Amino acid sequence: MKFLVTGAAGFIGFHVSERLLQAGHQVTGIDNLNDYYEVSLKEARLNLLANENFRFVKLDLADREGMAQLFAEEKFDRVIHLAAQAGVRYSLENPHVYADANLTGHLNVLEGCRHNKVQHLLYASSSSVYGLNRKMPFSTDDSVDHPVSLYAATKKANELMSHTYSHLYGLPTTGLRFFTVYGPWGRPDMALFKFTKAMLEGKSIDVYNYGKMKRDFTYVDDIVEAIIRMQDVIPQADPNWTVENGSPATSSAPYHIYNIGNSSPVELMDYITALEEALGIEAQKNMMPIQPGDVLETSADTQPLYDTIGFKPQTSVKEGVKKFVEWYKSYYKA
Ligand SMILES: NC(=O)c1ccc[n+]([C@@H]2O[C@H](COP(=O)([O-])OP(=O)(O)OC[C@H]3O[C@@H](n4cnc5c(N)ncnc54)[C@H](O)[C@@H]3O)[C@@H](O)[C@H]2O)c1
């Protein structure tokens, strides 16, 4: 099949593209290769080009004509939309980038799918949509109307925009709420990467909320496995669904939302311990207050995911962190 993967030079997009290529699919990857973090890492991920079934187009999601032309020319069967401006903290300083990439960009993807009869659009949402929710684990049956960062608000908006297109145009859409993804080729702006770099350079690490935070850390291969299985599960319209009796994760339209998390939240300090063990270095910890926009705990209810695809993430932090460190040391020759 012919896939479009947006954000193919990004962390998750790279891994997903690699798996699709291994399975023999044709993949067109797009990315604007912006400098939110080191561009050389994004370029290195484009070693995907070694596979003749991979084509790369440097394109901004917000480029309306460019996106329309790409969709019209390529006639994709399926679309996996992972490009976005990510990061909670950066959205406090640079709100407009989020509107361009995550709102205008998402609209351009929806329009492309609508006008070119794409069979299935999968797109990345985020655990951050749970915002002020305190009931654990987070369930896709819960309401998510209280985001605490603009990033989270744009991800929630993506779900709403997708629902509209599923309803109006019958476009099958599946939104996947990822929970703190980590692993080889990971993102330099995320804790594991920053901690590893600082510890190898003999510098201290900033530990927010004095380490009193829990995250449902999810290993990237598990995310990819779930995406690969999920792209074959095309949501169907359910005429019997009503707002009163149905889950907010489903609809009368061909629309579905799932959590993809590890469903075993880990204390930040235990995550750091796993890293200390993998590196054989004790971290010098700089205890800091909580950052605006951060949430205290995330935990995914993944039962609906398991019921649908017979798989849920389960790589332990100890195992996943070890694999990240192996990659980091070989990539940076550290
Ligand atoms: N990594 C996580 O923990 C996590 C958690 C929840 C949700 N997500 C979501 O998963 C998706 C993938 O995240 P990631 O961790 O791989 O991030 P990433 O930043 O590594 O990848 C995103 C890619 O999109 C590209 N991009 C950004 N804006 C663009 C634009 N306007 N036009 C074209 N390309 C653009 C970037 O250059 C980047 O390569 C994102 O939608 C993100 O919001 C990630």
Description of the structure:
With 334 residues, the protein is of the alpha/beta class. It has one domain: Rossmann fold (3-Layer(aba) Sandwich), CATH 3.40.50. 39% of the residues lie in helices and 16% in strands. The chain has 11 helices and 13 strands. Strands 3-2-1-4-5-6-11 form a 7-stranded parallel beta sheet, with helices on both faces. A two-stranded parallel ribbon has the order 7-10. Strand 1, helix 1 and strand 2 form a beta-alpha-beta unit. Helix 5 packs parallel to helix 6 and helix 9 crosses helix 11. The longest helix has 21 residues. It is globular, with a radius of gyration of 19 Å. The N and C termini lie far apart (39 Å). The model has no long low-confidence stretch (mean pLDDT 97). Nicotinamide-adenine-dinucleotide binds next to helix 1, helix 5 and strand 5.
Radius of gyration: 19 Å
* Mean pLDDT value: 97
Low-confidence sequence ranges: none
Helix segment tally: 11
Number of strands: 13
Assess the beta-strand content as a share of residues: 15-25%
Report the major sheet: 7 strands, parallel
What's the level 1 CATH class? Answer: Alpha Beta
Largest sheet strand order: 3-2-1-4-5-6-11
CATH architecture classification = 3-Layer(aba) Sandwich
* Alpha-beta classification: alpha/beta
Ions, cofactors and other ligands present here are: nicotinamide-adenine-dinucleotide
**Count of spatially separate domains:** 1
N-end to C-end Cα span = 39 Å
Q: How helical, in percent, are the residues?
A: 25-40%
The CATH H-level superfamily is: NAD(P)-binding Rossmann-like Domain
| Global morphology | globular
The CATH topology name reads Rossmann fold
The ordered H/E elements are: EHEHEHEHHEHEEHEEEHEEHEHH
